[in-house]
Design a protein that fits this description.
The complex is a heterodimer of chains A (320) and B (297).
Chain A: H1 2-29, H2 34-39, H3 45-55, H4 61-73, H5 87-122, H6 127-141, H7 144-158, H8 176-210, H9 213-220, H10 225-250, H11 252-262, H12 268-275, H13 281-309, H14 316-319
Chain B: H1 8-11, H2 17-27, H3 29-51, H4 83-119, H5 121-135, H6 139-150, H7 154-181, H8 184-191, H9 196-232, H10 244-251, H11 261-288
Helix pairs in contact in B: 3-4, 3-11, 4-5, 4-7, 4-9, 4-11, 5-7, 6-7, 7-9, 8-9, 9-10, 9-11, 10-11
The chains are: A mainly alpha (320), B mainly alpha (297).
């Protein structure tokens, strides 16, 4: 197992390097001149040249890449063109809000997916099964920004009493109840698409397991149906769900781009979205890099969890 | 019982492909519903200039913020533009982005997948690490990053979504190539001296087509959703040209005034278009590629 972990980490290095090449290339692909973005359109040409020299933009691209990478490795993602704040600092400041939103969304998604998925698998072709199939079908096709706006319209403006505010954020430490009140709508919005996917997976995994012989044996032993499902069926059916949820954890920032924009939630997705129109590339580059690295790490963790959850999966041959 | 075994296939009546598809379609309403919705949206996109009741960009201040009614079925926005007409014209953006970006992904992804799977060796190793690097990015973030670098334009959105689609096609094609590469008919083709290009195009590619049709349908759904998301963030076509995502973003400021129709028209349009391709893709998956069929669902 340890050799497998090491091997996976070693294999991640070339991919991570290629990821940095892509992120670097994307920033350099832009037709905008960073010197102009910093100094403004009216700036003196001498000032622009000085800024280009200072940023190292006068050097060949491979040299610029190596210089940029050596800074990235040391945790230096550069400074925002707009605010001059360090990008890593800007990201870490906003990360708690994104993590809170993502964690709440995954909690909602997994809880509902398990509850409804189990019910619809146990009561196959019933009304609840039909409803869950409809939720699945609609959830994957419903644009999250449209859902967010509908929820705001309904809960913040139409239903009397304005149950939930249309957006904004209050830190958990400042006012826990207001924090939760503001969390509900964005978390529900972010949870919907993954709920649909998880629900489908819970249902189909359980139906797969229900057909296996050891389930018949468990029932034949006289175990209660609840025990059969909880102890025998769910334990095996959960393995593919762990994969899905693991990948969704890594992709939290992806969903946050849209949801945080709709609900004015001050996380790193909104940080990047606000940086795009002002061509603040270090910020966009930083967020994209952090999201790619977290996505890669979550994939690795999922693979390792796989081995831990299912003793039948052996990585000996894969490592050999 | 005698020991003679008659192959079941001998007893079957041979059916034409058209009647097989027709019979399947009757048995599978998902394909009818998904297909009909896709055809309806393609019709609207193709004939928007003829069937849209109003000019989608003409500002008529006296018609501002009219709720849905007989004269404007989906109401008007704050500039007096007809929401239904904008939805109809917006379908041209969404479907063209879907078509072109899927074509980009298909062309590049299939080429990479065929070459990597057939050639193997160093090319396979390098190409697949490149694909892994693209897969290391969450899809929408990569599309946002590419579009924000290239500039907020519809062509750039198409390129971005197309690039994001490459890994799925490349992996799918490579996987299929690896499964058929060692089969007898490929070995036979190689033995009689067929060129690698001929083997790939005439013998391997036809084995991948079904899976690619399914993938292309499903990735059109993703492309429409991704274009809407890019437009919502201001990275798609620029105003005043109608685009579903951009119109929803614009309508956000009128939510407190309960002018809901500005959002609902384009929102329902995105949902039905994405739903149509997802539904059709699922049905095609069951019809064309039973190996990929989701168990139990």
């Amino acid at each position: 197992m340890i050799s497998y972990i090491l091997r996976r980490l070693l294999l991640m290095i070339p991919v991570a390097l290629l990821v940095t090449v892509v992120v670097f290339a994307l920033a350099r692909l832009s037709p905008a001149d960073p010197a102009l973005v910093i100094a403004g359109e009216q700036a003196d040409p001498a000032v622009l040249t000085a800024i280009r020299e200072q940023l190292g933009l006068d050097k060949p691209l491979p040299v610029q890449y190596v210089a940029w990478l050596s800074h990235v490795v040391r945790g230096d993602l550069g400074r925002s063109f707009q605010t001059r704040q360090r990008v890593l600092e800007a990201i870490t400041e906003r990360l708690p809000a994104t993590i809170e939103l993502g964690a709440a969304a995954i909690l909602i998604s997994v809880t509902f997916a398990l509850a409804i998925g189990i019910l619809s698998a146990v009561k196959r072709n019933s009304l609840i099964d039909l409803l869950s199939s409809s939720v699945t079908l609609m959830g994957v096709s419903f644009p999250s920004f449209f859902l967010g706006l509908l929820l705001i319209l309904l809960f913040a403006y139409v239903i009397p009493g304005h149950i939930f505010p249309p957006g904004g954020y209050v830190p958990l430490a400042t006012d826990p109840s207001e924090n939760l009140r503001r969390l509900v709508l964005p978390a529900a919005t972010l949870a919907t698409a993954s709920l649909a996917i998880n629900l489908r997976q819970v249902r189909s995994s359980l139906l797969d397991v229900f057909g296996l012989e050891y389930m018949r044996t468990a029932r034949a032993k006289g175990l209660r149906e609840r025990t059969v499902i909880a102890r025998h069926a769910l334990k095996n059916a959960l393995i593919p769900i762990v994969t899905l949820v693991g990948i969704q954890v890594g992709a939290i920032i992806e969903g946050a781009f849209i949801t945080e924009t709709v609900f004015s939630w001050p996380g790193i997705g909104r940080l990047a979205v606000q940086a795009i129109p002002s061509q603040d590339y270090p910020v966009v580059q930083g967020v994209v890099l952090v999201s790619a690295i977290s996505y890669m790490l979550s994939t690795l963790v999922v693979d390792l969890l796989y081995a831990w959850l299912d003793p039948r999966i052996s990585y000996v041959s894969a490592a050999a | 019982m005698s020991g003679t075994t008659v192959p079941l296939a001998l007893g079957r009546r041979r059916e034409s492909p058209a009647s097989t598809v027709g019979a399947f379609a009757r048995r599978n309403p998902r394909m009818i519903i998904g297909g009909a919705l896709v055809v309806a949206w393609v019709f609207v996109a193709a004939f928007a200039p003829l069937i849209a009741p109003y000019d989608p960009i003409k500002v008529i201040p006296s018609d501002a913020l009219i709720p849905p009614g007989a004269s404007h079925w989906l109401g008007t926005d704050d500039l007096g533009r007809d929401v239904l007409s904008r939805v109809m014209w917006g379908s041209r953006v969404s479907l063209s982005v879907g078509l072109i970006s899927v074509s980009i992904g298909l062309l590049l992804g299939v080429t990479i997948g065929l070459a990597a799977g057939y050639l193997g060796g160093t090319f396979d190793l390098i190409a697949m690490r490149g694909i892994d690097a693209l897969l290391a990015f969450p899809a929408l973030i990569l599309a946002i990053a590419i579009t924000s670098s290239l500039g907020p334009q519809i062509q750039n959105a198409m390129i971005a979504i197309g690039i994001v689609a490459i890994p799925a096609y490349a992996r799918l094609t490579r996987g299929q190539v690896l499964t058929v590469r060692a089969r007898e008919f490929i070995v036979a083709a190689r033995t009689i001296g067929a060129s690698p290009l001929r083997i790939v195009i005439r013998h391997i590619f036809p084995n991948v087509v079904n899976a690619l049709i399914v993938q292309a349908t499903l990735s059109t759904a993703f492309a429409i959703l991704a274009e809407a998301a890019l437009s919502f963030l201001g990275l798609g076509p620029q105003p005043p040209y109608p685009s579903w995502g951009q119109d929803i973003a614009y309508s956000q400021r009128y939510l407190p005034n309960l002018k809901w129709w500005m959002s609902v028209g384009p929102g329902v349009a995105i949902f039905t278009a994405v739903f149509a391709f997802n539904f059709l893709g699922d049905a095609l998956r069951d019809a064309l590629d039973p190996r990929l069929r989701r168990s139990g669902s």
